[in-house]
């Protein structure tokens, strides 16, 4: 079993983070954190999971802007990690942090209600 997709995913994560930090200067891109990268076994597609700080509108605008810049990022990744065919990049919002925050809020509310009981 090959570990190449995992190695490529890590390399893509590193390079996308570098591109976001140093080259993508669009003001529509908010504070973005890359939470994960999944590459298909055939290395044709890379799903990049991101978390964006801000409102739903800011998240949607950031996601749209990043998807428009995906072609540029794909060519940069192909050049930087030297693969014959750079995978097509698909950005996805990672809502797991939001879900975790919501669960913590619910647990706090349950604890408050339990403390009020006699």
TrEMBL record:
GO terms for molecular function: ribosomal small subunit binding. It is found in: Cytoplasm. GO terms for biological process: maturation of SSU-rRNA. Keywords: Cytoplasm, Ribosome biogenesis. Monomer. Binds 30S ribosomal subunits, but not 50S ribosomal subunits or 70S ribosomes. NCBIfam families: rbfA. Belongs to the RbfA family. This is Ribosome-binding factor A. It comes from Desulforamulus profundi.
